[in-house]
């Protein structure tokens, strides 16, 4: 879907932001770029839609070099969500969402239906919100509009540059959950930049950890947790004891509040399973059931396990 071949970026002041990057992002994947400040993650993201031009190498989308696309068509076909949200303050919510579809000359009826569908998708009643101005919305609601505006013209790719980092912790966690649920429906290729490892582990199908303009490791959350390539990755992930013998699947179930037992066709594992066994099962399935004494007592998915680990991290930090 998106392929980087020996991509480098050097700015006019001589700073090399990205060094000979080779990377493939798969269709429909939620791919996270993470690293400390100055690691090159945002530069890497912005090179995809040519907000920053490449110095060397090539980026391909669907096998075609991005330099061969008309730049306006390229950007119209890629959704973009910023930390700053950047809604037009004097335009209504529906006018904000309609910007790119109007540029693409969609019919008024098609645009109206698309706006209604998108607002419904993020839990905002179209009749209530379509005519409001951005200033009439909370920060979390504005960021939801930023997300649906990026989806308005139904792009294959959505770029998200630290979109939730300016929000309070409760709004941020809610939007993380919302984007995960939304992705199950829309199945876009999402490239997401963050500096927060907890957020990366929760959201990413795969994660690329960057340092000094280079990729240190790319892998699934499980691969990074169990097989960090060096001490930098190990320390960046955090202090959670992921091999903890105290792992208890029943505790995870109690935290997820998901007791839906409609598990037809879904594999079931014993509630006594270890963390590694649970992650192994979830690497093959989106969700699995857990049984105790021969009875299914609930179901879990990868996000609920990651959230459990993150809660343990937070609790460990409080106790230090």
TrEMBL record:
Keywords: ATP-binding, Nucleotide-binding. This is ABC transporter ATP-binding protein. The lineage of its organism: Bacteria, Bacillati, Bacillota, Bacilli, Bacillales.
């Amino acid at each position: 879907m998106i392929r980087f071949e020996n991509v480098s970026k050097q700015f006019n002041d001589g700073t090399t932001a990205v060094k000979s990057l080779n990377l493939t992002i798969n269709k429909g994947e939620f791919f996270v770029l993470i690293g400390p400040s100055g690691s090159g993650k945002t530069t890497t993201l912005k090179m995809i839609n040519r907000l920053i031009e490449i110095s060397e190498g090539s980026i391909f989308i669907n096998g075609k070099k991005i330099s061969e696309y008309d730049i306006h068509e390229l950007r119209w076909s890629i959704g973009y969500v910023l930390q700053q949200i950047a809604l037009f303050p004097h335009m209504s919510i529906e006018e904000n969402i309609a910007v790119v579809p109007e540029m693409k000359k969609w019919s008024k009826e098609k645009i109206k239906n698309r706006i209604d569908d998108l607002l419904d998708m993020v839990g905002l009643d179209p009749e209530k919100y379509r005519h409001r101005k951005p200033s009439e919305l909370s920060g979390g609601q504005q960021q939801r509009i930023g997300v649906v505006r990026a989806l308005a013209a139904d792009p294959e790719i959505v770029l998200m540059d630290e979109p939730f980092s300016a929000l309070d912790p409760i709004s941020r966690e809610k939007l993380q959950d919302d984007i995960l649920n939304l992705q199950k429906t829309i199945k876009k290729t999402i490239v997401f930049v963050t500096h927060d490892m907890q957020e990366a582990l929760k959201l990413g199908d795969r994660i690329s950890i960057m340092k000094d303009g280079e990729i240190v490791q790319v892998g699934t959350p499980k691969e990074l947790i169990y097989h960090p390539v060096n001490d930098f990755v190990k320390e960046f992930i955090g202090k959670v004891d992921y091999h903890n013998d105290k792992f208890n699947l029943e505790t995870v179930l109690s935290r997820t509040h998901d007791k839906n037992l409609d598990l037809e066709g879904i594999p079931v594992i014993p509630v006594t399973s270890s963390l590694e066994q649970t992650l192994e099962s979830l690497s093959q399935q989106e969700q699995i059931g857990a049984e105790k004494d021969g009875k299914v007592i609930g179901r879990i998915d990868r996000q609920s396990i990651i959230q459990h680990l993150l809660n343990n991290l937070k609790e460990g930090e409080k106790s230090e």
